[in-house]
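In response to the reviewer comment on reproducibility (Comment 2.3), we provide here a single inverse folding case reported in full, input and output, so that an independent group could reproduce the run without further information from us. The structure tokens appear first.
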């Protein structure tokens, strides 16, 4: 929506009011001056006005004459003002204020025209979505003013990569759109090569050289889509695929991406009915102390089975996160897990529940959990919430505040998948975490990779110095178990001890021989 008054419109309105006052004053004054001075140009009117003296026609005609002359000048100036105002409104409506490139509205309008005239031109059409890989970091580091300067520089360089008849538009934020006309594939390849070269050239920001990379997705018409909406969606999907594979890369939309989109759509649609149709269930994986070999707690794991098919959490959790459905699913998990485990969890055992990044940053997370603990009579000191490193670094200040409020309730905090590369050790000190969980990738490489073994040893030493306990995830062999005990790990979780199980099996097996392998291993 355009503003009701722009800076230019206010300025022109004020000027018009002033000039109208001046014009009226000038006409009245000039008429009076002419009558007093008896200018000869009007002597011919004398005889006529004598015949119609009661009309005061001389004064009337003089006033009308001057009013017409000044009015013509005033009207001309107002017409010029209207042209200026129309130009500004057009720029506001169709051009980006920072880069002066076509905005989303004009870019999509041009695309519609290209599609309409596709058969007439004989050209082929490619649509490219461009998204910065590190713009937020640059914006936070150098400020929004220099961030805008960078956007303008990037826009200028993108403009030089394409032809005169092509469009470079800014969709908003750090996203750009290219509409590329080409006759032969070699022409398109030449443009993509230029786009790659642009990423190698530094940009100057406040005397600092900054390098920027883009993830670029390209869709071809009519090969990849036959309408505007689908073509834009295809290019956007290719861009996100490029960003996941390798930042700074260019990806063309293909059948693999199409299949992934179809799969994602089916998962997103299925998630909407999963809770109502009771397709979700919880499995609990036991955790054991390496010092005593005893059961010390469980981690609750969400499972989804629909139409007889098991859907991996790796396939549906990120879809739920991106679509926003994770908030409803996460609330269901909290209610289900706390209610199932409250009657059977021993006083010396803990219950771990994973929080997704989106769920962790919810404004009402703390009161929701507090209400559930009170309603279900679940001891807060036996609840442990697992938070990924990514959830923490994505908004570190808020993460500190959220963790602080959760710990006031008596809840323990574990950093999940620790060692995957997101955390800063300096920031780790600022968190009030209680436990680190070593990612299973490093556990799998124990006795295979010296580097991974050294990293596990370093994490354990770091945790000890910071007074944090450590759980190793994904422990599957006795060799891994022995090595972790040798390195001084506190607890383990994995198939070597126990597989995840439904609540019914937890009730039957808690006091059985299920956990004997670990007890025997500690003597080996």
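Designed residues, in position order:
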């Amino acid at each position: 929506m355009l503003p009701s008054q722009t800076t230019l419109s206010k300025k022109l309105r004020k000027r018009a009011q002033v000039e109208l006052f001046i014009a009226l004053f000038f006409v009245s004054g000039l008429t009076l001056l002419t009558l007093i001075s008896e200018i000869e140009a009007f002597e011919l009117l004398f005889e006529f006005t004598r015949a119609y003296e009661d009309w005061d026609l001389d004064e009337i005609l003089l006033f009308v004459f001057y009013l017409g002359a000044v009015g013509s000048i005033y009207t001309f100036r107002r017409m010029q003002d209207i042209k200026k105002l129309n130009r500004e409104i057009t720029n506001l409506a169709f051009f980006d204020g920072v880069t002066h490139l076509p905005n989303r509205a004009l870019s999509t309008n041009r695309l519609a025209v290209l599609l309409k005239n596709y058969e007439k031109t004989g050209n082929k059409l490619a649509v490219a979505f461009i998204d910065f890989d590190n713009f937020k970091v640059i914006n936070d580091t150098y400020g929004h003013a220099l961030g805008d300067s960078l956007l303008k520089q990037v826009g200028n360089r993108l403009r030089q990569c394409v032809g005169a008849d092509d469009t470079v538009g800014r969709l908003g934020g750090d996203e750009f759109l290219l509409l590329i006309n080409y006759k032969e594939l070699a022409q398109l390849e030449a443009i993509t090569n230029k786009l790659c070269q642009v990423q190698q050239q530094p940009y100057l920001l406040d005397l600092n050289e900054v390098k920027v990379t883009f993830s670029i997705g390209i869709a071809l018409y009519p090969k990849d889509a036959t309408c505007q909406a689908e073509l834009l969606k295809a290019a956007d999907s290719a861009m996100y695929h490029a960003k996941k594979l390798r930042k700074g890369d260019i990806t063309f939309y293909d059948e693999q991406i199409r299949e992934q989109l179809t799969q994602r759509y089916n998962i997103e649609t299925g998630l909407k009915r999963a809770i109502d149709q009771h397709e979700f269930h919880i499995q609990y994986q036991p955790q054991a102390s390496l010092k005593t070999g005893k059961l010390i707690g469980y981690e609750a794991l969400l499972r989804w089975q629909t139409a007889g098919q098991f859907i991996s959490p790796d396939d549906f959790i990120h879809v739920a996160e991106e679509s926003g459905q994770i908030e409803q699913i996460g609330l269901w998990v909290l209610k289900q897990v706390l209610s199932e485990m409250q009657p059977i969890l021993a006083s010396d055992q803990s219950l771990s529940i994973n929080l997704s990044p989106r769920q962790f940053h919810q404004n009402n997370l703390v009161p929701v959990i507090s209400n559930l603990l009170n309603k279900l009579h679940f001891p807060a000191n036996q609840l442990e919430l697992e938070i990924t490193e990514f959830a923490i670094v994505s908004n570190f200040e808020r993460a500190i505040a959220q963790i602080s409020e959760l710990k006031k309730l008596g809840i323990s905090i574990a950093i999940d998948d620790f060692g995957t590369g997101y955390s800063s050790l300096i920031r780790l000190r600022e968190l009030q975490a209680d436990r680190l969980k070593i990612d299973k990738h490093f556990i799998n490489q124990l006795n295979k990779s010296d580097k991974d073994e050294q990293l596990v040893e370093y994490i354990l030493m770091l945790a000890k110095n910071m007074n944090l306990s450590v759980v190793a995830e994904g422990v599957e062999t006795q060799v891994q178990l022995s090595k972790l005990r040798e390195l001084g790990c506190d607890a383990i979780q994995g198939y070597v001890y126990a597989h995840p199980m439904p609540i019914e099996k937890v009730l039957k097996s808690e006091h059985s021989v299920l956990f004997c392998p670990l007890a025997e291993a500690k003597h080996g």
